[in-house]
Amino acid sequence: MTTRYACVLVREFPLQTLLRMRSELQSRPVAVLQGEPPFEQVCSLNMTARTLGIEPEMTKLEMEMFPTAVVLSRSLKEEAAAHAALLECAGSFSPRVEDQSNDSCFCCVIDIAGTEKLFGSPDALGESLLKQTRALGVRASIAISSNFHAAICLARGHSGAGIRLVPSGMESAALASLSLDVIDLSLEQAETFSLWGITTLGELGNLQETELIARIGQACKELRLLARGESPHLFTPIEPFFLLEERMDLDSPVELLDSLLFIVGVMLDQIIVRAQSRIVALASITIHLDLEGGISHSRTVRPALPNTDRKLWLKLIHLDLQAHPPQAAIQALSVRAQPGSTSKVQLGLFSPQVPEPMRLDVTLARIRAIVGENCAGQAVLKDAHRQDSFRIEPFVVPASATMQQTGGQRLAVRMMRPPETVMVTVRDRQPKSFVFREKRYTVERAYGPWSSAGDWWKPGLWSLEQWDLVARGHDHSWLCCCLTRDLMLEQWQIEALYD
Amino acid sequence: MTDEYIELHAASAFSFLEGASLPEDLIQRAATLNMPAMALLDRNGVYGSARFHTLAHKYGVRAHVGAEIAVSSLGNRLMPPAWLPHQHTPEPARIPLLCASRAGYQNLCQMITRFKMRETTKCEGAATFEDLENFSGGLICLTGGEEGPLASALVRGGESEAIEVTEKLVRLFGPKNVYVELQRHGEREEEWRNQAAIRIAQRLGLPVVATNGVRYANAYDREILDVFTSIRHHTDLEHAGRLLTVNQQRYLRNAQEMKDRFSDLPLAIANTAALSQRLEFELNDLGYEFPRYPVPQGDTMDSFLRKRSAEGVLKRYGSKQNHGLLEKAQKQVERELALIEKLGFAGYFLIVWDLVDYCKRNDILVQGRGSAANSAVCYALEITAVDPIGMELLFERFLSESRGEWPDIDLDLPSGDKREQAIQYIYQRYGELGAAITANVITYRGKSAAREVGKAMSFDPETLSRLSSLVSQWEWKGKTDTLENSFLHAGFDVEHAHIHKFLELCMRIQDLPRHLGQHSGGMVICQGQLDRVVPLERSSMPGRTVVQWDKEDCADLGIIKVDLLGLGMMSVIQDSLVLVAQHYGEPVDLAQLPQDPVVYETLQRADTVGMFQVESRAQMASLPRNHPEIFYDLVVQVAIIRPGPIVGKMMHPYMRRRQKKEAVTYPHPSLIPVLKRTLGVPLFQEQLLRMAMTVADFSGSEAEELRRAVGMRRSWQRMEQLEVKLRSGMTKNGLDAATQDNIIQNITSFALYGFPESHAASFALIAYASAYFKVRYLAAFTCAILNNQPMGFYMPAVLVKDAQRHGLRIHPIDVQVSQWPCTIEHESNGERSMRMGLMYAKGLRQDIGEAIISSRSQSGLFHSAEDLTRRVPLLQRKELTLLARIGALNSLNGIHHRRDAVWQVEEAVRPVGPLLKQQRGHQVSSPLRQMSTEERLSADYSGTGLTVGRHPLHYRRLELQAMKVLTSSELRNYKHGEYVRAAGCVIARQRPGTAKGFIFLSMEDETGIANVIITPDLYERERVVVSRSKFVLVEGALQNQDGVIHVKAARIKPLAFHNLEVRSHDFH
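ok -> structure tokens follow
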């Protein structure tokens, strides 16, 4: 059986994707911007826009010079949907489809050998393919050849939409007039060929192999074969999307967690069997619950190491749902798992003994269930001046246990978390008295203000003044505290108490 | 106890990236706060103190001098504790030192010089205890703030270690000269250290003093300091963390604020005034002495100078067989010498004479320029080449008794090695501590500000490079040429808060110092004593040292300097002299160049590409009108096309009179002798002086004072006084009011911009020499100018094309023939031609070029590409393909065209095994097709920057003719006002400051150069085409007046052309 490949190529894919659903814009100059505001740049545009003078990489501001042009934002979600639809379309002609797309261009090659009885001659198949891609709202170039790479080159070199069919054995001739741009050359190779005056595939293909190798090495052998339409290819068909997901609509709403866990256990069994058949473990599990009243509830559990221990997963899910219970009865649920590597962590022979990861996960999950998701871990100070700026990081085993303890007496400070807002009377820009926990205090001694301010280059700028106060209550009790004035909010707070 | 507070510890932006305000801003704020004195202590130097002093003097504030000195022996400065995350790197602690007396200042300068010069490269450096011991006299030491040794000792080892450190300082500086410093910036840890410092001061019986450790003038400038900190640590604001300041309290505080802060320690405030009283030294008491020149025993410097001058006068004027002139010269020299002796300047003249003598002995071409050319002594000593007696130049413009300023002698030397040789002679003659180059303060400008602030604000490099490429650098700044507009053109939304802040910071850091560079040639000389006047430090260039002040600072403080300026044209003339002697067999004496009518005819035609000073577009546009016929016309020509005369509206009256379109009139008959040479229009500074001397009986020095008073825009008061005197003098001489007004108007409008006649004459000499060589010895001149690039107004491609149009045959680079520089060859018909040198192969390293030449001279010509590769193993593939691409291998055996050569070298650099070789057999020629004309041109321009073949436009002429596009030579045949179309390759773009936003393009085709005028409106519409396109097509009305041709463009569009890497010379 002779080999046959059909290549489907969609240029300006970000633009074509958006125009699919906006047919009214087809005839207007349209440019697509990508990037974070305010640095968006043109990434794709149609011919009408080019004629107007718009160029790729123009900024949003530069685009304002073209008031007639329509400016759209790139949508990766819509591109993903269009991409999937095109692959599905290709898959309807043959189960063997290889994806060769890049950031700005959709490209797939279909192995159509032996499909004549189903779809007719390659010509007819091409027509049908073109018709279907048009139905999807995109303009594609289609090339059919006995050689995989030749099909791609022909599609790339074929300006505009339509079909290019090359009879078997005629690849070299068909490719000869195409520019070298249709093959992926390295910068160095492109420079060399430009220096040699080689601009077309025909010129490259006509060079003697040994002469070429003597000059630019073995890599050029492949290029020459590509140019002649003789390069072999190991077809790597895309696999159907591997999704570890189970969904179940319940006959009657479930309210009890135990009943729910019973169902989750059954679904987990299925997922674990499927994962194990692919020699992967489960890295995380997301449970999505459809609740009564049209609301939904999602939770994700992610242990330290990917595993397939059903009991452990059930425990972790149980603890998580206990901490974050659904607010209504459950009507349907889906369980989706992310596959992860099953590899184990290699511990050093002399590393300190650490808790067994699975048990630690359970313990941490228990703690998180009590204190909150982002409140378990170790607090790490940030390199910043802002008071109390720290972040929570997961627990790690320290590389070396060299905790330095400096001796001497230290003052104990009780930080108030959160700080308590107080009413303060100020005289001569100094606090004189305040009410704290329903008791009035008169300031006897005030040290400060200690001032700090920062992050002036961004919206979150802050500015604080602090006083260390010795104050006496009306009942003659003493209070030593740290009082903070937020200059941005004009707010006074007791930040800490000194013992 | 007084109520005053004196800030004694302030750092300016001259603490490079550790201070955020200019010294001028600090002193201005001090004056606003009524602070009677203030001290500037920059990091390891007195970089900002000269300008601090100058402005302080103006505001009536006493400027104390000092520095923060890094001392490696005192351990590292304070850092956050190890348990706190931070990115601080260890740096030595710094002690603030204040100069109490001149001896103290001299010690400080010597100490800084000592540790800076100990380093082998340009770097911060640090002093040691030994340095402090040697140079502690006259200095007062504070214990410092957070950067000081006390703070770090307290944290490191508690009070005991802090006491130890303080005692060390007391031992070094004496108990009366150490003050315990207290600063209060609202930081807890600082107050803890203050309390400890107070206890230590009490225990050791030392006084305390309050300072604010100032780093900026106003609190708001803390932002700039934070940006600088990020730049200094190569990070951005987001990640700088604790490197940034914790608050904005290090600004210059008023006395009340400081008293409130130190209400518990009033003595600390009072001590600032007391200490200020002790600081007697100010920079006007520098103690700078004039350099001495070593003279033989029995001679004084004055007698020695007298002898050398007498010899010189005889040599210069004796040969002219004009007894009257000789006598006049002797009288003038005598008059000058008397003044030199009186002012004590003999040493300076002898030092310059000695240098000139050294240059002559070592075949280094040298010529004095500037006002020195007014001096007959300088002429006699052969420092200058213009005869001031013959040209009736005015000595007072150079030196006058009342001027209170040292004379300034500038020397032009060939740029490059020869100039460096002269500089090194000075170092060797006066010692490492006796001479140094003046500094050049590099400041933040549009591009650098945007780039560095952008980095600090975390903008990505791509965006920043886009912005930098768009920041306008044209000389003329139009309304639209703002930094804000550059941001808009780069695609930034300035309304966005983050970008708005970025723009604001860019503007705020404009003109703040970035680092210290070296001046192009200003040398300060002081016999072995310079390091007592100003600290010296290493320059980034090996073998050079720089002083910490720039040339304005040196001039303000009366430090004498000699400018050794590198002039490309001097190198060209020097090389031309050698080449003419070698290839024409006609030795030329530069001092006796004949006045050649053919040279003047060439100048009249404005055929001046490559000639010194007369080659620019503006010069070319005026040459046909001015029609120079004698040397003095050239002096005027050089002087007239300058911003000064153009702005002063002197250019057109002179030109109209020159063309006899306007009658020659004089403001007063008595001024005829003064203004006759310039047709009644004052053009030179000397004429201003003479006018005042003639009409108002001013003395020479009074006239010079008048010139300077007019020149300095701010000295209105002095100008008014002089005007009264001028009017009374004129009244006395019988001039009526209208004439007086006219003369005063003439003086004031022009004095700001007038050019010294002596300087113009010196330049005109070089201009004439360059014109003479070009006209008479084209091959030698072209060869020399191409070997001394970059220089002048035009790129080498233009110089080559111009030489070809003048009949010079130019051969391409050839590995079989070419030397590293361009050379002269002799054709079989006896004519001289030129061969391009290997130096023009872009990317070919000189050592490889030399290896090719050496192999060729040792073992003969190369047989093939393989032979070349084998014999010059240094040659890599990249260089070989470059040579092949530009046709430099075309004369090797078996190579028929450039691609043949490429094919062969590609094989030669990858030798294959015998098996493959056998299998392939021997291929006779390459399968590659020959390069098309377009490809060949592209290879020429990208590989050499020029083509010796036909001009690119030649190949498009038929097509252009069909489009009715005229050549530049055809334009001459069209009448003024006719609508024409022309095209060419843009060789120069200019937007002169005087042209109100007009842009001038020079474009070249195969027949010559055409000039195009772009209006500001057209520029706004076609900004990209005007500033970027390499080939353009313009349409518009022809301006053909007095033989000067311009096309006033109504439309301009890019001419679709090959992908040629043609470069234009754009003037910013």
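Chain B touches chain A through 53 residues (CB under 8 Å).
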